Amino acid sequence: MKAITLLYIVNATLLLLHEIESAYEKEWEILKLPGKITGFLLLHIPIIIILFYGLIEIEKNTIIGLIIGAILGFGGVIPYIVHKIIFKRPDQFNMPISNVIIYLNVLSGIGLLFLSVNLFA
């Protein structure tokens, strides 16, 4: 398995774990998203489809795979920005496991972004 594929899988897994916790924390209220849990779940359908499609394409080393990889890599940094900088709340996304997921997601996201951009060039 290629390093980029492994980083893609790790980053995607960490993002999905974060999204599971996001449902627990009612992130739609934090971000003022419409539709409550229903809207939150519907929003994730195309995201998850693209995530799985990107894995297939990144393994084939296609341009679209590298683009999705770069986007997903950047996406690995988003939970940190949102929950540790913009909407920092001591009672949300602050359990030890939450922090492990968020900080590992930053590392895997930066690695995936770096590999995707370098292979694209």
Brief overview:
The protein is mainly alpha-helical and 121 residues long.
Layout of helices and strands, plus pairs?
Blueprint: H1 3-24, H2 27-30, H3 36-59, H4 63-75, H5 78-86, H6 96-120
Q: Tell me the helix content.
A: over 70%
Which shape, going by the Cα principal axes? globular
Low-confidence stretches: none
- What's the count of strands? 0
What does this structure look like?
This protein is an all-alpha fold. The chain has one domain. Helix content is about 80%, strand content about 0%. The protein contains six helices and no strands. It has helices spanning about 5-25, 25-30, 35-60, 65-75, 80-85, 95-120. The longest helix has 25 residues, at about 95-120. It is globular.
